[in-house]
Design a protein that fits this description.
2 copies of one chain form a homodimer. With 333 residues, chain A is α/β, with parallel strands linked by helices. Chain A has 2 domains: 151 residues, Medium-chain alcohol dehydrogenases, catalytic domain (Quinone Oxidoreductase, Chain A, domain 1, Alpha-Beta Complex); 151 residues, 3-Layer(aba) Sandwich (Rossmann fold). Helix content of chain A is 26%, strand content 26%. Chain A has 10 helices and 14 strands. In chain A, strands 3, 4, 5, 6, 13 and 14 form a 6-stranded mixed sheet that branches. Chain A starts with a strand and ends with a strand. Chains A and B meet through helix 8 and strand 12 of A and helix 8 and strand 12 of B. Strand 12 of chain A pairs antiparallel with strand 12 of chain B, so a sheet runs across the interface.
């Protein structure tokens, strides 16, 4: 059997573009004991995948010539493990390819639900990241003023809505007036600020005259600095991502207020990964599905069709094009 | 009555030097209701006073022409408040001058103890900063690997010793082999690293192969980055000072690992000020005095004599000359 693969042809210097990728056909290795072969259905796009090209993170750095890494919803077509059978759905690190043969160690059969892509958005990495980041890491409380950056993105749009459900005042930071409108009209944010025009520090001060209790940071860099300047005494900063730092050779030093602002205002800044809260997943699924069913939580997905759409979709996501979770459908379910 | 004052003649561009100051004689204002006049005995030097020239901090920014700000141990010579009488000792913001007339609102008479300068070191700002920073903000536990920067300074030398008392392994970072020797021989540190030669990140890795549990940061900048790279998963960083950022016009963005390292290792970074822990002062005084009496805690002070020594002493402190707490004696007690 063959698999169509998207290869990271070379590591980017500076910004990533579609010419860093090419497509190729390869033989699919046969599944051995402990392995399964899958047919990829939907591949999730994530800004963090650009950081995998910069060096080791929570996974080894990507190298030129690798199949581009990524997480997919996939269907088992051949199984050499007892706990999975043909037809089961799994979320797995398949990489950007139509078929993959992978270790089945940490995989399990997923329930079928509608729409099935929710397994990659609200019930997948972005949903759990928003939930645990805001509630466990950020410990938001009713009445808090919460600011979130990359607010129209997969994680940010959920963070803002969950904060509203928890009784907070919510301000989103995003990159266009169009997205600002969406945040307020479609996602129920109290305020939305466009970082691409004017002075963000001043704009934040206007909408948060009493300061920020919790800043949920998806971007780092200058926007983090603008938030630091507006934090309330004893405020909390949730470090979830650093999108502003990803699309270059290496991260740059560009946050001025560290450690100065942390000291002056006795701030706490805390990073987290999903793995930290694995034991609390059942609670998260319960809450998220309740809010989705009741219509309190709106899940937005952008779904493109065709393996060849992946490079363009990632480059666009890094340029801030997306609203909600960006997913590429590789095959019909 | 006259007072001799050291004036900040102009705000420094770049590094501070003694030519930014001049001495002048002024009339001492008479104390009105609610005020006292004092005779300054000992003035404490603190690297943070350079930051007061950069902008507003926990106090308004210093301006050209101001009497240089500073905290002193002083003797009341005239009192217009009932709770203080002539001869009482107080710690007060007198500024760099031989006599001062000041509001007595937040002042109280201090016990006499020997040496009296301990009121400015172990029982003053540096002692309480080390104690609360390490135990309350950093929450060190027995068996932790603790790293402290500016380790031979007023705060750092106490942080390391308190961490040893609490059963930690302690590594100090300082700026010369001479100070490294002192840290190990006189202060009981397990290891000491000279940041001025070689690659600090690599050196830290060698002495902390399993990573750092608590990093007590007095300096920010590159040294903070070297520590960030060596933190253990779920480690804590105590943000106490940013000496590397003080001696210039404005703080620079020069920490690369924020927020990346915080996310990858689920680190917590927390700033604090002494005011945060005012309610715990009795406990702190009890512990610190017990450790001083038993000889477990060694207090090192460098005392210079004469008001005119202040500018030179501060410039030297910013250049890393000092061991322990630097104090200038202005008058005999």
């Amino acid at each position: 059997m063959k698999t169509n693969q998207i290869i990271l042809s070379k590591l980017p210097k500076g910004k990533l573009d579609i010419h860093h990728f090419h497509i190729q056909e390869s033989d699919l290795p046969s599944a051995k004991d402990g392995e399964i072969s899958v047919r990829t259905l939907y591949i999730a796009l994530d800004a963090a995948s650009r950081a995998w090209m910069q060096g080791d993170t929570y996974r080894p750095a990507l190298q030129a010539g690798n199949v581009m890494a990524g997480i997919a919803l996939a269907e088992v077509i051949e199984s050499h493990v007892p706990h999975l059978t043909k037809g089961d759905l799994v979320i797995a690190e398949t990489g950007w390819q139509t078929h993959a043969t992978i270790s089945a160690d940490a995989l399990f059969a997923l329930p079928t639900l509608k729409p099935v892509t929710y397994l990659l958005s609200i019930y997948g990495v972005p949903g759990l990241t928003a939930y645990f980041g805001l509630l466990q890491c950020g410990k938001v409380e009713q009445g808090n003023t919460v600011v979130v950056s990359a607010a129209a993105g997969a994680v940010g749009s959920l963070v803002g809505q969950i904060a509203k459900i928890k009784g907070c005042r919510v301000i989103g930071i995003t990159g266009s007036t169009h997205k600002c409108d969406l945040l307020k009209k479609d996602f129920g944010f109290d305020e939305a600020l466009d970082y691409s025009t004017g002075n963000l520090e001043d704009k934040l001060r206007l909408v948060c005259p009493d300061g920020i209790d919790v800043y949920f940071d998806n971007v780092g860099g200058n926007i983090l600095d603008a938030a630091l300047s507006n934090m309330k005494k004893h405020g909390r900063i949730v470090c979830c991502g650093a999108i502003s730092q990803y699309d270059s050779d290496t991260p740059k030093a560009n946050v001025v207020g560290i450690p100065g602002q942390l000291i002056l205002k006795s701030l706490t800044m805390k990073g987290f990964l999903l793995f930290d809260y694995l034991d609390k997943q059942p609670e998260a699924f319960h809450d998220l599905s309740t809010w989705v069913s009741s219509g309190q939580l709106r899940v937005v997905e952008e779904i493109f069709k065709g393996l060849e759409q992946l490079p363009k979709s990632l480059v666009g996501l890094l340029n801030g094009e997306n609203i909600g979770k960006r997913i590429v459908q590789v095959a019909d379910i």
